[in-house]
Design brief:
With 152 residues, this protein is an alpha/beta fold. It has helices spanning 5-12, 24-32, 44-49, 55-68, 74-99, 119-132, 144-151, and strands spanning 18-20, 37-39, 106-110, 136-139. It has a 4-stranded parallel β-sheet. The longest helix is centred in the middle third of the chain and has 26 residues, at 74-99. The chain starts with a helix and ends with a helix.
Length: 152
């Protein structure tokens, strides 16, 4: 069997491949290609909800979160669903993370972009996300407010 093009590129160049918004199946296949990790966007949960492979699992996660946190605001519940879905990717990459000493196996998650005017909340949310899995990397919008928060 011929080596896939993307694998040849990574073997012959300093290219490092990240998979954007993967299903769990896509990430498993990507591990065979020596991907560095995965990155997700705030719309990840919605994309997975519409995905044939992941849709039912996402609906079940939504039901669980609604039962477990009936009094939380909707935006907090969306973040909880996102954490759980992305957490599955993080668990899948954990052996890669451990085997490479953290050089590979990271999964990036981005919090709620609606809160881009509240630097303290963005930092709080990022720290909360990072605590949930060792392989998670938090993405935050680089706003002037956020940069000022780090400056102070």
């Amino acid at each position: 069997m011929e080596t896939p093009y993307v694998v040849r590129v990574m073997q012959q160049t300093p290219t490092r491949l990240w998979i954007n918004n993967p299903t769990l199946g896509e990430l498993k296949r990507g591990k065979d290609w020596q991907v560095v990790g995965a990155t997700t966007n705030p719309t990840y949960s919605m994309k997975m909800l519409k995905n044939a492979e992941m849709g039912e699992s996402v609906r079940e996660t939504l039901r669980q979160v609604a039962v477990e946190y009936p009094d939380r605001p909707g935006t907090d519940m969306v973040l909880e669903v996102q954490k759980r879905l992305v957490g599955r990717l993080a668990e899948e990459m954990l052996p890669v993370y451990r085997a490479t000493g953290g050089e590979r196996g990271l999964v990036a998650i981005q919090g709620n972009p609606i809160r881009d005017q509240d630097a303290a909340d963005m930092v709080r949310e990022a720290l909360e996300l990072l605590k949930s899995r060792p392989t998670l990397s938090s993405k935050s919008l680089a706003t002037v407010l956020l940069l000022r928060h780090f400056d102070s």
